[in-house]
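New to this. Explain these tokens.
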Amino acid sequence: MTPVTPLDEVIAKAECIKFVAGKYKGKQGWLDHTRTADASTTPVIVNLPKKGGLYGTFVHTGSFRKISTDQPMTYAEAVFQVPAIEASIVEAMRKLAKYDISKDEEEFKKQLDKEMMAAKDWMEQKGDDADWRRVKSWEERNGAVHSA
């Protein structure tokens, strides 16, 4: 039996997180409750298998999210949980937020909807060359139908 190291104990009690921005975007890790956070950073343990394992560091608080144990209920929720999609959307929305989207929030939503429809049309125009990807929501895995 392998002896338990302090790091193993930290990970066993820690909340799992995923990095959605910054240096570790796309990686997973854990909150490190053995060290103290400050106003803008949080202590974490990053899983870096290619670099030799686990790495303790501090990251900006907005660069990670807790990994939800809830299954996505809708197809859209499932797609938004794909790490590359989530990180790209976080990055794009943060760039938009720099322009004070609260000044015209409804129009920003209309513009985003327009861009989403243009992207959908672009993909459909590719025909047989389209690279469609699918994820399954809770509804699809369980045969449930969502009623709005």
Remarks:
- The chain has five helices and five strands.
- Residues 75-127 form one domain.
